[in-house]
């Protein structure tokens, strides 16, 4: 006689019924039911967090900015590790348009000591001297009828973009531009992209800018401005892709489960947590799975240039054919998964709705920890391009984030082995509930769709 079916999620008090008219409702329940019968230990027993920690130790020796030799070194390391576990490993190269900030910025003005200028992303080099001229907000209207030939335009932040201010002043003949803040704090902006009309530009704080403006109001002030070492151009970054083929070659393929993280960091940050932690966890999951038979293909990917706008994951997803995208059952993203100083673990989906990745992870966290890891809406990482291509995806992160996020203090000593292990266990057992032989789950994803891009990084354009 058939036993009445009670899904684990329901038993655990999870509200799966809040899922959208779930294409996956049945298969997810079937997978969850099977998982209850105890496959978790096969993965959990294989994980050794000392390996994860040692990968972070290696990777976080330097920042790993996309397109730099330090990223190349991380890529080589990740590839060698995947290969040492016996996986077929591919390096996927892609290009992007990059900007290297200046290594020298100087600003001096008669009567002013110790000005602290900062640069703008996409700003150009130059070495100029000229009289300061106050140019208001630098709008076209304000500059109409003004001649700025040879002058350094002093412009207040606000109303139009930084890039427009520089172009408007340059078109009136300015040799350089200073943009000062309209609020407290330093101004770290971007011109939004390259433009051949730009002249050298630096930023100043509100207080510095206002005192220069006051001096200009009283008489002529000569200033010198120097920007050196800035460089725009094509750069190369890489994704690293390791494949674990389905174990039983005689069976029809059961789809692909993908897990991964980004290996690049922001400039100046060793990125122990962001995201050597996710990269190292991807490596340790790959090692843990190497001798475990699976019916689905497993794919372990580390992405480049995430910090520059999810470029690596976007490139990866764009290179998939419709058929290849459909074969991917789900993508598990790990970004910032080991900080001692961050809050509790959460699962982010781009639309905040449950999908097969979040549901299986909530089930596995319930089995392992007694409570489901909470599901929240969130983008800002490599699960976004998968979502936009119609592939179920979710990202693991501890929130609130640690104070060291994107700083030079994001170092190994801030890493918690306990947190790392918790995430690897939740992801590994959720993946295995889909991948183990004979599970009754979905074999492929439904037809991929293109959704509108959303929740990207808002740049400091104004
Ligand atoms: N790991 C972060 C994402 C993050 C940080 C999510 C804090 C939630 C809280 C990621 O590496 C990152 O910094 N992403 C960029 C977005 C990207 C599109 C450039 C960001 O959030 O600024
Ligand atoms: Zn990150």
Automatic annotation (TrEMBL):
Domain PA span(s) in chain numbering: 130-212
Basic and acidic residues bias (residue ranges):
452-462
| Superkingdom of origin organism | Bacteria
Record keyword Nucleus present: no
What sections of the protein cross the membrane? none
Query: What would be one Pfam family of this protein?
Result: Peptidase_M28
Using the UniProt annotation, give all residue ranges assigned to the region (Disordered). 434-462
Write out the entry's keywords from A to Z: Aminopeptidase, Hydrolase, Protease, Signal
In this protein, which residues make up the domain named Peptidase M28? 239-429
Q: Which residues form the signal peptide?
A: 1-21
A single Gene Ontology molecular function, please? aminopeptidase activity
Q: State whether keyword Signal applies.
A: yes
* Protein's UniProt name: Aminopeptidase
